[in-house]
Amino acid sequence: MSDHENDFPPHLTSLEKLSRRSFLTRAGATSIATATATLAAPFAAASQGRQAATEQPPNTTPGTMPITLKVNGETHHIQVDPRATVLDTLRETIHLTGTKKGCDHGQCGACTVHVNGRRANSCLLLAVMQQNAEITTIEGIGTPERMHPMQAAFVEHDGYQCGYCTSGQIMSAVAVLKEPCGASDHDLREALSGNICRCGAYPNIVAAVQALRRSA
Asked: Which of 36, 52, 115, 151 has the highest CB neighbour number within 10 Å of its CB?
């Protein structure tokens, strides 16, 4: 008999001694396993968080909503803030920067676009409200290689100086071609009065538009 067996009371059998040893061994193993699980929990949570972030659908930002806009004949499926204007959506989300932000209050006309064929200040329109509309910007009117006749008329008559208001001026002028407007310069100035040119290039703008109207 070993010295360790002398540690047990004489009335315990060898089976009972073995059971006690097994209990102590299992208790120690359980304590180690519990401690290991406790230490591993934060790492597991972090791993799950990274996996969830990876599985999250792309281009989703809290507070935004998915919309579909048709611009210059192309369909764009995008995420926008519900408060985003058509102007900001065109420039910052779709990256069509030809439409300019001037006053951002509907007073200068620099942001003029066509919505279903009619001119409108894009800074006053919510993007979420235009999902069934056909939006046309200056990029959809013409290109440097294939200019719209109105763009060519502005170039020919120097209908701009700094150029910041020009895209809005051209968008309004193209719309005027389809609107009821008198033939005189005064009538045209009234029709284009919603577009401000801070450089004061109004005589050349009127000359450009009138030249195209008279040649039509």
From this structure: 151
* pTM recorded for the entire structure: 0.72
65-71 and 134-136: which strand pairing? parallel
Strands 112-115 and 74-80, sheet pairing: unpaired
Nearest to 102 by CA among 118, 122, 81, 83: 122
Task: Give the pLDDT confidence of 85-116 residue by residue, as tens digits.
Answer: 999 999 999 999 999 999 999 999 999 999 99
Q: Is the dihedral of CA 133, 138, 143, 149 positive or negative?
A: positive
91, 137 Cβ separation under 8 angstroms = no
Burial class (CB in 10 A: 0-12, 13-18, 19+), 179: exposed
Please write the tens of the pLDDT for every residue from 162-206.
999 999 999 999 999 999 999 999 999 999 999 999 999 999 999
Q: Which two tokens stand for residue 161?
A: 């100086």
CA–CA separation, 174 and 136 (whole Å): 11
Helix axes 149-156, 202-215, angle to 10 degrees: 130
Local structure of 32: helix, strand or coil: helix
Q: Do residues 159 and 204 lie in contact, with contact meaning Cβ atoms separated by under 8 Å?
A: yes
